[in-house]
Specification:
about 650 residues, alpha/beta, 4-stranded parallel sheet, 22 strands, disordered N terminus
């Protein structure tokens, strides 16, 4: 971001943030929200925008039915105001509010320890993973007049304020700066809220969101925001949640500030920091000039304001509020970014799950992860993702006290310890185990070992032939029959049973080691078991029930084999691990049957996934594409 000296104009500094809020962690959410307000003030901002439902956390689910959730949010809001969060700063907080017995997803705008107005959400997200209408009601009020919200008794007592406006309001300051609200899904709707706000002369619009990560979704957000401000002019701020919030979704942050179709500031999409604030100083005269240069905008704005006799009733006039810079000596206007930070698909496939794994690990209380590492593309992809997590954490820990505290707690280390390399962190948090049998090849055994060394994992090679033989003997004693593989004259039923014994024993062994490996290393705690079943296998049904696909977490369950191989090639170059490139080029094999007779011991295994499935990988990926197209017809967009 570059800057140039200011000559004259109407300058306002605005701030938006990315917060890692936890569902129902009211104390922690207040702490992070307060920190973002303090950072915004330090940057000279007069307006701060926060994400959707930031005080409660987005993923409270059915706890939104409980009155306590609403009461604790009001308590959190009062605490923020009493601690000075809104002192000389207009703050837009996200929280649930009950009005006349109806639950609404709201924006609460505050200034100088007073609630200026509450703005309910008008369009709820119910597509894909979202179920907002289960918990909230979309607000409807066609009169454009604000209603009055009677504040809870304890709020009245502590803030010395009895009521506040409730409705589709916007704020007007004494120095002619206007601020409006939009909430997440409303940006994606055909008749978006920002259109009406812009036509009414609102210059700054804030969108507090709870938007989870999907491949290429950031591109869609940017497209919508850039298009909105290019068409209508104005300053558009976007704030988003970050983290896993206790579920399988990952909210990927990426706060953005856009003005007149140009991106001024952008926060990282993938990061392990809890609080990130970005700011921009804008000249509102540029907004007014931009809108004046569009004749059709002026015509429609005049129509909107002339046809609505009650247009001014939605405006909250605040005579004591001044948002523009009083002293212009040090003021500078933020210039548009020359290049946007947009991750490649391979980078998104790696870093999105990596951030999710870190967030899940630090919230779970576990001492790390255990990964059954076969040396194939799937388990190696999960290993690469955990390695990417270690790179992100090692980079952030020296600069972020919260990340440093989390990594010491998880690794059971002293207060002055920090990992110096990703491999050092990997030794503490990642445990890989190769569970080979007489059917395993030297190729995969070697790849698993070399990958473990490259990422720094605590690696074990554990032959499980004794366990397999023991189970077969139990069956033979009970039935007086001994099953054989097909290559040895057995039937398909015998062959599949012998393959499944190996796969399922690996799952049992993995959980045994996950519980006891920390003990063998003289450490406390337990390990979370990572699975490695890709989406192609799930669609085709090519998997063994209760094998290594049965785990605590599966970071690649929605990623195809082709995408995983491309991600391995990207990670190989990014992190300097050539073994990942070798694994990406190897033919996929389960290695559950004996090698074909006459096979070279140093050759790849003769049992190949494509032959087993009787379908090429490209066809399997075609099934995934058909599934995605089918979903897109029932859900036309994602937010």
């Amino acid at each position: 971001m570059s800057e140039f000296a200011f000559g004259s104009g109407s300058l306002v500094t605005v701030a938006t943030c990315t917060l890692n809020q936890w569902a129902l962690d009211f104390d922690g959410n207040v702490e992070r929200s307060l920190k973002s307000c303090q950072m915004a003030k330090e940057a000279g901002a007069s307006f701060r925008l926060g994400p959707e439902l930031e005080l409660s956390g987005y993923g409270c689910e059915d706890h939104f039915f409980e009155q306590d959730t609403f009461a604790h949010c009001w308590e959190s809001l009062v605490e923020l105001l009493e601690k000075g969060a809104s002192d000389d700063l207009v703050c837009d907080f996200g929280m649930p509010v009950m009005y006349h017995g109806v639950r609404y997803n709201c924006r609460v705008v505050c200034y100088n320890r007073q609630i200026l107005f509450v703005r309910p959400k008008t369009a709820l997200a119910d597509n894909g993973n979202y179920r907002e209408s289960r918990y909230f009601t979309a607000y409807r009020n066609t009169s454009n007049t604000n209603e009055e919200l009677l504040l809870p008794n304890f709020v009245q007592e502590r803030l010395k304020q009895r009521t506040c406006p409730f409705g589709l309001a916007y704020l007007q300051s004494n120095d002619s700066v206007s601020i409006g609200c939009e909430s997440c899904e409303e940006l994606w709707t055909p008749n978006a809220t920002h259109i009406d706000l812009a036509l009414r002369g609102v210059e700054i619009i804030g969108n507090g969101s709870g938007s989870h990560h999907e491949l290429r979704k950031l591109d869609q957000r940017l497209e919508l925001m850039v298009s909105a401000t290019r068409k209508c002019g104005g300053v558009y701020l976007y704030s988003n949640q970050r983290g896993c919030d206790g579920g399988r979704l990952y909210f990927d942050g990426g706060a953005i500030i856009v003005c007149n179709g140009k991106v001024l500031a952008q926060a990282p999409q993938f990061s392990v920091s809890d609080v990130e604030v970005i700011t921009a100083t804008v000249d509102l005269d540029d907004v007014r000039s931009y809108r004046a240069s569009i004749p059709s905008f002026g015509i429609q704005a005049a129509q909107v304001n002339s046809q609505s006799e009650l247009a001014n009733d939605s405006c909250i006039d605040c005579p004591s509020l001044k948002l523009q810079h009083e002293s212009l000596d040090r003021a500078v206007v933020t210039t548009p970014k020359e290049g946007l930070t947009i991750s490649s698909p391979e980078e998104e496939c790696c870093l999105g799950p990596a951030c999710w794994l870190w967030d899940y690990l630090r919230r779970s209380g576990a001492a790390g992860y255990l990964l059954p590492l076969s040396g194939g593309a799937d388990s190696s992809s999960v290993c690469a993702i955990v390695s990417a997590m270690c790179h992100l954490v090692v980079e952030a820990a020296p600069k972020d006290p919260q990340v440093a505290a989390d990594v010491r707690r998880i690794c059971r280390q002293s207060d002055d310890w920090l990992p110096s390399t990703p491999q050092e962190l990997g030794t503490n948090v990642l445990h890989t185990i190769f569970m080979g049998t007489e059917n395993s090849s030297e190729k995969t055994t070697s790849r698993a070992k070399r990958l473990g060394e490259a990422v720094g994992s605590y690696h074990l090679s554990v032959p499980i032939d004794l366990m397999v033989d023991a189970v077969i003997k139990v069956f033979s004693r009970a039935t007086d029959r001994r099953p054989q593989f097909q290559v040895n004259g057995g039937s398909m039923a015998e062959d599949l049973a012998l393959q499944n014994i190996q796969a399922r024993l690996r799952m049992v062994t993995a959980y045994l080691f996950a519980q006891l490996v920390p003990w063998t290393r003289n450490r406390t705690g337990f390990l979370l078991v990572l699975g490695s079943a890709n989406v192609d296998e799930g669609l085709r049904g090519y998997m063994t029930k209760y094998d290594c696909s049965s785990a605590d977490l599966n970071p690649i369950g929605a990623i195809s084999k082709g995408d995983l191989k491309r991600m391995l090639l990207w990670a190989s170059e990014r992190y300097g691990m050539p073994v990942l490139s070798e694994i990406a080029g190897a033919p996929p094999t389960a290695e559950l049957r004996p090698q074909a007779k006459g096979s070279d011991e140093d050759a790849e295994h003769s049992q190949l996934d494509e032959e087993e499935m009787d379908i090429a990988r490209e066809c399997a990926q075609g099934l995934e594409s058909i599934s995605q197209v089918s979903k897109s017809r029932t859900s036309s967009h994602t937010r």
